[in-house]
Structures are given as structure tokens and as C-alpha cells.
Amino acid sequence: MHFPLTLALALSASVLGAPAPAVDSSSSVVADPSTTISSSKINIPSSTTDSSHPSPTVPYASGDLNESYLDKFQNELPQPVRGSKGAKILGPQNIPLDRQNPDFLASPSTDNGAVSNVKWPFSLSHNRVQDGGWARQQNVHSMPIATTMAGVNMRLKAGALRELHWHITAEWAYVLEGSCRVVVVNSEGQNYIADVYKLTQSAFQYPGDLWYFPPGIPHVIQGLNDTADGCEFLLVFDDGEFSEDSTFSATEWMAHVPKEVLSKNFQVNASAFDHIPDRQLWMLPSAVPTGSAEEQGVKSPQGVSTLPYTFAASKANSTKLPGGTVKVVDSRTFEVSKTIALAEVTVEVGGMRELHWHPTQPEWSYFIEGEARITVFAAQGNARTFNYQAGDIGYVPPSFGHYVENIGNTTLKFLEIFNSDKYEDISLNQWLALTPPDMVKRTLGPLTVERRHDQQATESEANRSMSRPTVIQ
């Protein structure tokens, strides 16, 4: 039997809608056998032989494949030529930049109109370098379209401290390399101390641990040396206007309070404050702590925070897909994280994150490894294709259709981050499969997706084929 618009490489409809399962020290990648069905192929019958096919009311879309020129441009001088269109550059050329952005130089014929810039490399951000480490940031000043979230890439050497501070916004973090210790005190007088790290097991690298500090909650971060010389991590803030330079710091505040007031507040002699810094330290070197987090912690009469501010995502299970893996962590798993949700995605060579969109929240993306291209569809005929490499940031506004294609020769790994308490998306595959076939046929033409070995397909397989593939090979 045939199932019109059935979908291969399917994933249970709950996979991306559900958070990562409970943290487990066992293998981090698991495959659910119930999510795997037979492969499929797309057949587009001839429009000249079937009288049931609707008559076209507008010209058909171009048959150009518009394949990636990434490999082509690595082996020859990149030129803005695609097929018979374009012409060679005669003037100056930034060849390394053109090789990194082949779809900007020789744009696909499907690109049209205007879409705001949705790419920013951290490599173009000014780096604040100081004793103990460095940090660089992205906000609306570097990528104006990214109004709801901002990012900071920070490095702390072993022992170095990101001094006692707090923010107006919430702070969410993903550990990229190494390990660090975080200490938090909340408004109830409860404290919390924990070590977070990127876990390495055998030859496989797993996603890093997370933390989340609600707005106004004071905290401090210290680099450790148990897995590397300190740590490097990604910070995301739930406001595109955020600036790392606008942090509230303990040193800066106390430097601007009269010593008489400090003396009264802490009930000590004013001379106790003769050696406080006269300005913000921001980041400073220090010795690596010798004890564990539990040994270093101070016992609060109010107890320990009832909600953990860290989440061991490095130990949480990923869902194995034919084209890669996916892991979701949002407030359903990491309860304190009320304004940031995460989907960590890997895509194998030749695969892609399917065509989809996010209904109400923008996607702030961070690319960890590999090469990708994304076409952003902004309605009214506007579409533009962007290329991304490790260290790049992407941003897709709510409801803008897009995909993420692995155009490199290695596994693509990236983070999808949302200013929301819960992850959600709309799959184009699933939408078409769950819409009456005649409506789809009348709109898109005689497009069908037929299952190989469909004579053996069961009803449960047909139902699963109407779920979202998520990552396609």
C-alpha cells in the first residue's frame, strides 16, 4: 500500500517536544527502536501524463539544485558565478572570507529580496583580556536583529575568579571545555555550590553541563584544573541589549560606598576596608581550590537552595536519529531555567536539520563544530542563505522558516537556544503529512513521498511516518 506524504527517518512526535531524560551515568546516546522505520524516496510524477494533476496557475519553481560550493571554493579561487549567472571578480578580494561564505558570494537562485543579517562570528567581537582570562560578547550592537538574547564567550584560567557579581537579566551557561565551580546565594538566604564541566568518555565528546542564574541572584565562578587549565563556556542572557560591561560587581559597589557606611553595615572598624579595590576587578587570578565543592561550601542556617542552579547535561541521554542526535533541556527537566530552553543537535555528514520554524520564540544558535548553511525564509518572497562555522552565532526570528544543512566533511554540532521555558517547533514534514492529501496536492502539486518496501508497512509505521524527522540523512 502507499501512504501519501508519509515521512521517512521519523522521530516520535514527542522527541523534540520533550526534555532530556533524567540524568544517568550510563551511555549518553541511546536509540529508541520504536522511532526507526524503513527509508523513503521522493517521486514527483510527470505532470503531462496524469489528468488528475492540477493545472498550474503560475510557473513551476526552478529545477536548479543550488548545491553548496564550500568544497569547490576550498580548491579554487572563489568567484560569484553560479551556472550562467554572475562574473569573476576583477578587483580586490578577501579570499579566506569568501571561502567561509560560499552562499553569500555565489548565492543560490532561491535567494530573493532582503533578510537582515543573522550571522555574527565571535571572532569579530572585541575581546576583553585580563589577568585570569578573557571574554567577548555579542548583542544588538553587533547583530541588531537579535533583540531577545545576547551571548558571551568567556575563558577562566585554573583558579581564576569571575568576581562576585549579579545581573538584571538571567544568565544561562553551557560549558565548552574544562571545568569550573559556581557558588550562588538566593533571596531566601539559601546557598548552592557545584562543579560543572565538559565530560570526556573514551573517544566521544559529550555536551557540557549547564547553569542558570535568575535575574538579580548573586554568584561567582572559578576555573578548576581537574580536566584542563580552567574552563571556557558560553553565556546566554535573555535580553539582546545585555552588555558584560554593565554587570553589578561587589568590588565596584563597595568602592563607591563611604567607609563609614561600610563600617556600620558590617559592624567592624572602618580600617577593615583599607585594602578593598578602588574599582571593579571583573576577573582576577587566584589559587585552585584544593577541596571539593562540598568541603569548600559554607553551611547556611537557611539551608541549601531547593532548586539546583546547575544541570549535568553531560550525563543526560541524547536521542539517536538516522541523521544525528538531539537533546532537549528546558524547564521540564531543569526546573529553575524559566527563560532559556536548549536543543543540542548533531548532524552527520550529508544530513540536515529538517525544514521547520518556531512559532513564538526566536532561535539563537551557536555552532560548536562543523560547517553549515541555513536559508532563512522571511515571507513576502524574502529568503537568504548564510554559512556558519565553529564559533559563529545565528539568529532566526519567530516563525521564520529555516533548515540547517551539514555541508562539511565532519559532524556538525550546534545549539538551538530559545528565550522560553519550553522548547517547541513546527515540522514542515509533519504539517504536510497531517493535512488532507488533496489540499496539499492542490497547493504544491503532485508531490508524494513513497516508502521503499511499502507493501510491508504496518499501520503503526504509517502513524510514525506522520511524526517529525527532526534530523534527516
User: CATH class of the largest domain, anyone?
Assistant: Mainly Beta
Give the terminus-to-terminus CA distance: 24 Å
Total tally of structural domains: 2
CATH topology of the largest domain: Jelly Rolls
Characterize the overall form: elongated
The structural class is mainly beta
Supply the CATH architecture of the largest domain: Sandwich
List low-confidence stretches: 1-15, 24-51, 201-207, 449-457
Estimated radius of gyration? 26 Å
The pLDDT mean sits at 86
- Relative helix content: 10-25%
Total helical elements: 9
Please report the total strand number as a whole number: 32
Organism: Rhizoctonia solani
GO molecular function: metal ion binding
Signal peptide: 1-17
GO biological process, one term: oxalate metabolic process
Descriptive notes:
- The structure is a single chain.
- This protein is mainly β.
- The protein has two domains: about 30-75 and about 95-110 and about 315-470, Jelly Rolls (Sandwich), CATH 2.60.120.10; about 125-245 and about 280-315, Sandwich (Jelly Rolls).
- Helix content is about 10%, strand content about 30%.
- The strands form six sheets. Strands 6, 7, 8, 9, 10, 11, 14, 15, 16, 17, 18 and 19 form a twelve-stranded antiparallel β-sheet that branches. The chain has an eight-stranded mixed β-sheet with strand order 1-20-21-22-29-24-27-5, with no helix packed on it. Strands 23, 25, 26, 28, 30 and 32 form a six-stranded antiparallel β-sheet that branches.
- The longest helix is centred in the middle third of the chain and has 8 residues, at about 260-265.
- The radius of gyration is 26 Å and the shape is elongated.
- The two termini are about 25 Å apart.
- The relative contact order is 0.22.
- Mean pLDDT is about 85; it is low at about 1-15, about 25-50, about 200-205 and about 450-455.
